[in-house]
């Protein structure tokens, strides 16, 4: 995701850390897109800022009170990643609470894939990320599949057509390029003529999600099981490994 990557660059920039002593990254996509749980979001902000869970189970007014004590200490940068809720009332309630709590000069950064969500939280002119140029798209494809193969006679025309179908979206190019890396001409031709053309009909025309599903379908059975298991964990959760 473009927005996630750009927001991460901003969030982790040393200049931002210096400007905003308090900062928090909240993965809002873990929530039901049809019902924004304001209390859960505020609790997550508090826990991120304090590394404490001492407000779990407390009523909303107490959560707001305790969070205010934290946020009013210093300037604060809050990132809401992948917000989906499109109901103005619920978004307004959350924003109004946060604006009343944070110190002057604090900032809230929201990433979303929905223009309706941007409108719901009062963003009149959102910063909409564009796709790569044709030149950069091809360069990324070359890096992913290998420059020598991408530019060899029998592959270059197929590669150009495949990149075009990826609509200049980096994620799509990397996913498809990874599938083609190390494959022979027959696999490239098959992907170009049949499989890639068919993905537009998957998932109601959502091409990015279709390409991701397409790559999933080509995993081995063992990797599919592993992927499905990992999907049980909430987005943004740090998974501790034993070895």
TrEMBL record:
InterPro entries linked to this entry: Apaf_helical, Disease_R_plants, NB-ARC, P-loop_NTPase
Superkingdom in the source lineage: Eukaryota
SUPFAM superfamilies: P-loop containing nucleoside triphosphate hydrolases
Signal peptide stretch: none
Entry's Gene Ontology BP terms: defense response to other organism
Pfam families in alphabetical order: NB-ARC (PF00931)
Protein name: NB-ARC domain-containing protein
């Amino acid at each position: 995701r473009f927005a996630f990557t750009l927001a991460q660059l901003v969030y982790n920039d040393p200049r931002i850390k210096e400007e905003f002593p308090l900062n928090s990254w909240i993965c809002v996509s873990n929530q039901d897109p049809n019902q924004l749980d304001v209390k859960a979001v505020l609790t997550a902000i508090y826990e991120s800022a304090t590394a404490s869970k001492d407000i779990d189970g407390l009523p909303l007014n107490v959560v707001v009170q305790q969070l205010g004590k934290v946020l009013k200490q210093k300037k604060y940068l809050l990132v809401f990643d992948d917000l989906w809720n499109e109901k103005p009332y619920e978004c307004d309630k959350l924003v109004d609470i946060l604006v009343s709590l944070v110190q002057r000069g604090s900032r809230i950064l929201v990433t979303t894939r929905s223009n309706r969500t941007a409108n719901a939280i009062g963003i009149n002119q959102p910063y909409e990320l564009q796709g790569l140029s044709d030149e950069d798209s091809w360069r990324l494809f070359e890096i992913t599949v290998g420059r020598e193969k991408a530019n060899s006679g029998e592959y270059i025309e197929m590669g150009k057509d495949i990149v075009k179908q990826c609509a200049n979206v980096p994620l799509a190019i990397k996913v498809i390029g990874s599938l083609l890396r190390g494959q022979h001409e027959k696999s490239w031709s098959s992907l170009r003529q049949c499989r890639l053309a068919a993905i537009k009909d998957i998932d109601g025309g959502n091409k990015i999600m279709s390409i991701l599903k397409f790559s999933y379908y080509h995993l081995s059975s063992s990797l599919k099981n592993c992927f499905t298991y990992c999907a049980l964990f909430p987005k943004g959760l740090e998974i501790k490994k034993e070895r």
